[in-house]
Write a structure and sequence with these properties.
Blueprint lengths: L9 H31 L2 H21 L1 H6 L5 H28 L5 H22 L3 H23 L14 H19 L10 H94 L1
Helix pairs in contact: 1-2, 1-8, 2-4, 2-8, 4-5, 4-6, 5-6, 6-7, 7-8
Length: 294
């Protein structure tokens, strides 16, 4: 039954407000990324956008919205399975994005390969989940997530380039991102594997980490897309100027060629007259010699 808001415990009100804020931020972030990706169609941006939509569904499921909307259409076990699939899918989707992002900074090749192996292992865990081993799959997913986070932080510090391959994103921003992910995910996950005590932060650690890191990386990628757009615009202007210069140079050479052709044509007639006159004079001298002999 419904109760007045004043009778609702403050903790419950705070949890509902936090969950609503969390889900709204994730949905807004995913929509912004989709709009930016639609204009740029960048691989790194696309991988993170796909990851954000899965996170957005995870936030909606945390609020219980799928159960509210689909309760009359799907059984509860099916809804639970959808939620579990979204949780497990975050690992391979996140590592796919991480590999694409870190590859642009020339990281250690062995660590990057390890990152890829963790991502592929996530799909193996997905298969185990679909076979009905939900508990084992969730535990394996948490452990692989911790390995991926540690690999991301370590790999970011092995990057040899100060900027991404397109010269837009600084490696310092990426390192800060992975260090924050590492600190927050460890605090939130360690109690789940028996390496710490549960706390209020532990219960929302994963949500807090996903929210802050999602917003932070969204800002980085949106700024990156804007800089790429400005660079592309400047390149297009330089290309247009270069094409104009090439066109002017071609016209100048064509005009020079026409001028030389006309000059040769104009000089050809006087030279022919001179040659004819010289030839006639030579024949006259020959005729005089023949006449004198006769």
């Amino acid at each position: 039954d419904l109760r007045p808001l004043s009778e609702v415990p403050a903790a419950a009100t705070w949890e509902v407000m936090w969950a609503a804020f969390y889900a709204a931020c994730l949905v807004l972030s995913a929509l912004i990324l989709l709009a930016v990706w639609w204009g740029h169609r960048d691989g790194i941006l696309g991988a993170f956008t796909l990851r954000q939509f899965v996170y957005a569904y995870y936030g909606a499921a945390y609020l219980g919205l799928p159960n509210l909307w689909l309760a009359g259409h799907l059984p509860v076990p099916a809804l639970d399975l959808m939620f579990s699939i979204a949780v497990v899918a975050l690992l391979p989707l996140s590592t796919r994005f991480d590999v694409r992002l870190l590859s642009s900074f020339q990281p250690n090749a062995a660590l990057l390969t390890g990152f890829k192996v963790v991502g592929y292992s996530g799909w193996v865990v997905m298969g185990v989940l679909l076979l009905g081993e939900t508990r084992w799959a969730m535990q394996a997913n948490v452990l692989l997530l911790m390995v991926a986070v540690v690999l991301g932080a370590v790999t970011s510090w092995t990057c040899r380039s100060e900027y991404s391959s397109d010269g837009v994103v600084s490696v310092r921003a990426v390192r800060f991102y992975y260090l924050f992910v590492l600190s927050s995910i460890l605090i939130g996950v360690l109690p789940l594997v028996g390496l710490g005590q549960f706390s209020e932060w532990s219960s929302v650690g994963l949500l807090t980490h996903s929210l802050i890191t999602s917003v932070w990386m969204t800002v980085i990628l949106v700024v990156r897309a804007g800089r790429q757009a400005r660079r592309a615009e400047a390149f297009a202007k330089d290309l247009a100027l270069s094409e104009q210069r090439v066109d002017l140079e071609q016209r100048r050479r064509q005009e020079q060629s026409k001028f030389l052709h006309m000059l040769v044509h104009e000089l050809k007639t006087p030279l022919s007259v001179v040659a004819l006159a010289l030839g006639t004079q030579g024949r006259r001298e020959e005729n005089r010699e023949l006449a004198s002999r006769a």
